Amino acid sequence: MTYNTLEVTKDGGVCIIKLNRPKALNALCAELTKELDDALTKLEADDKIGCVILTGSEKAFAAGADITELKDGTFLGMYKHDVFGLYWESVARFRKPIIAAVAGYALGGGCEIAMMCDFIIAADNARFGQPEINLGVMPGAGGTQRLTKAVGKSKAMDMCLTGRMMKADEAHACGLVSRVVPLDDLMETTLEAAKKIAAQSQPIAMMTKEAVNTSFETTLSQGIHFERRLFQSMFSTEDQKEGMAAFIEKRKPHFNNK
Ligand code: DAK
Questions:
Q1: Residue 106: partners with Cβ closer than 8 Å, 6 or more residues away
Q2: pTM: predicted TM-score of the whole model, two decimal places
């Protein structure tokens, strides 16, 4: 897969997508969002890939939507073409596990895309923020919603209304990121987590992700009902038989994604 704004590499069952517009701090232009959508569509269809890592540079995961493209926007233009709505949600729609490895700035749309991933591993130099209010707008790709669900009302209001940045340790303390590691260890740590996930049964990992995400959309009892049905359905898979047999036989499981 060759792109102008992304570098895509594969390592066994893991694919690493690196946002690659370093001069603009990986600002999310229309071309990048289209290419990201294309890459994810292909990876979803690639049975060999069990987990994806989305990352940027050491200085910036992504400094937000490309302001040069946004500045002359009109309501009708955005409404009719819905470039952002159309392609940005591709990360949230992606059905396989996807981890954001964030170093440097994750601002505006950059923070929103990181939050669309299943979890975030942050380098100690990471900075998260929803600074859109400084530009006379507000978050437009889930920032007011996903951030609030992740960190609660008070901190989400603080971030969205003041536009301030949050350092990695604060993001960790409030549950926005799952781990903080030294910058030099970011990719190794994330790759280790991604390889662990990719070695699991792919359909089981996908269903696990679906169940966790369902908790955001349903009542507790509906979510638990959904979880129980998925759990029961797993007993129709070969991978459940293999996983439990391997435990009893004290060996590593070899999942076939069946
Ligand atoms: N867009 C375009 N270019 C950007 C950029 C951005 N978001 N962020 C940085 N750059 C460019 C700078 O213009 C500069 O370019 P040159 O001048 O060298 O040509 C280069 O990257 C380096 O930036 P700086 O010189 O500013 O670097 P510093 O280290 O001094 O500062 C910074 C780094 C990240 C603090 C600063 O660049 C900054 O504040 N950037 C803007 C951050 C920001 O406001 N982000 C939010 C953007 S608005 C939508 C859904 C979502 C969205 C929109 C619509 N729909 C569904 C319709 C999302 C909106 C946003 O994300």
A1: 56, 60, 61, 62, 100, 114, 126, 127, 128, 129
A2: 0.97
DSSP letters, 219-234, are: -HHHHHHHHHHHHHHG
Strand order of the sheet with strand 60-62?
A: 60-62, 105-107, 127-129, 165-167
CB 212: neighbour CB atoms within 10 A?
13
Q: State in Å: Cα 181 to ligand 1 middle.
A: 25
Q: Answer for the pair 88, 29: CB distance below 8 angstroms, yes or no.
A: no
Give the bridge partners for 121, in sequence order: 101, 179
Best residue among 20, 25, 82 to mutate for probing ligand 1, ranked by most atoms within 8 Å of CB = 25
Which residues are catalytically annotated?
65, 109, 112, 132
| Cβ contacts of 83 within 8 Å, gap of 6 or more | 30, 33
pLDDT tens digits along 93-129: 999 999 999 999 999 999 999 999 999 999 999 999 9
Rounded to the nearest angstrom, the distance between the alpha carbon of 64 and the centre of ligand 1 is 6
- pLDDT tens digits, one per residue of 209-222: 999 999 999 999 99
- Pairing mode, if any, of strands 14-19 and 6-11? antiparallel
Largest Cα–Cα separation, the chain? 64
Over residues 39-85, the pLDDT tens digits come to 999 999 999 999 999 999 999 999 999 999 999 999 998 888 876 67
Band of the pLDDT at 228, cuts 50, 70, 90? very high
Cα–Cα distance, 188 to 168 (Å, whole number) = 18
